[in-house]
Amino acid sequence: MSQHAAGRVRAALAAALVFGAAGMPLAAHADEITVFAAASLTNALAEIEKRFEAETGHDLVISLAGSSALARQIQQGAPADIFISANPNWMDVVEADGLIEPDSRFDLLRNSIVLIASGTDAEKVDIGPDLDLSGLLGDGRLAMALVDAVPAGVYGKAALESLGLWDGVETKVAQADNVRAALALVATGEAPYGIVYATDAAAEDDVTVVGTFPDDSHPPIVYPAADLANRDFPAEAEFLDYLRGPEAREAFERQGFVVIEQ
Fold this sequence. Notes:
Elements: H1 3-18, E1 32-38, H2 42-56, E2 59-65, H3 67-75, E3 82-84, H4 88-96, E4 106-110, E5 113-118, H5 133-137, E6 142-145, H6 151-162, H7 166-169, E7 173-176, H8 179-187, E8 193-197, H9 198-202, E9 207-212, E10 222-227, H10 234-243, H11 246-254, E11 258-259
Helix pairs in contact: 2-11, 3-4
């Protein structure tokens, strides 16, 4: 082979390292990013995961559960990189333990809580102090996420207490490990009614939203996100930036979340 031809071969090989078979640039370095996220983010993050991985070459490993369970796992040393909580208080707990990177925390989303009924043709109700929720339940149960730990349950209990309804239904509450589990109890008919996020109700065809709890009946529902402090690599910041970008915004809004302006 001539020197000139060998030079062309070397140039072609170099180009192959920079461009993929489809002519698209390859990621300079692909990382695995482990994301601990509230279960209510299931649908939105499934969409975001596909698009982020396709665009960056990074691999997202998403673990979904109640924010309280995730926070405790982080406290116990679970190897997560990003935490998205459905409640600022659980992010506060992790931050107080020095487990998030300084200045990486920001408020990402807002949500609301609704009363849902099993089936697709349930009658609407006016949610207020005059609602006979106990009578509505009859011998059935009110499905809720854990009312003293999981944010959706905490918000729901606060709303019921604020409206003077909690004492009448406390003994009828069926508590689930997370909000998606509470949603499933209603969707399958095991509980006639439940309290979940509006975004969860929108993701399930077998329930009816019969009322929305007034905003002033519970603390604001805010989802903070942060980079955890167990390790530091550029892909973490890249993903957090992506969450604040237009494509993630579209995914969140499609699921009914309100994106907080940064």
